[in-house]
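4.2 Preliminary Data

To establish feasibility before requesting continued support, the project team ran the inverse folding procedure on a target of 73 residues. The structure was first converted into the token representation described in Section 3, and no sequence information of any kind was made available to the design step. The complete token record follows.
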């Protein structure tokens, strides 16, 4: 079995951190500290499509908040 066929068969999950940044991680493996499951599992392409759908603002949450405060103040 080649590496590409193994990767195609691998199940991933969409994960998110406290800064509302997204990534994919192998399903069944422990998540790194600070990352939480978003709820989507599937192929790599399915997970990346989900991220493209939900992660529309690439700025970290802390930066978005600071920018909103600066605009409001």
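Position-by-position output of the design step:
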């Amino acid at each position: 079995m080649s590496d590409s066929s193994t990767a195609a068969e691998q199940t991933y999950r969409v994960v998110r951190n406290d800064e509302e940044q997204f990534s994919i991680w192998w399903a069944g493996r422990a998540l790194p500290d600070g990352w939480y499951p978003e709820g989507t599992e599937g192929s790599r392409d399915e997970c990346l499509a989900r991220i493209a759908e939900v992660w529309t603002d690439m700025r970290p949450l802390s930066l978005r908040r600071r920018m909103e405060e600066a605009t409001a103040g």
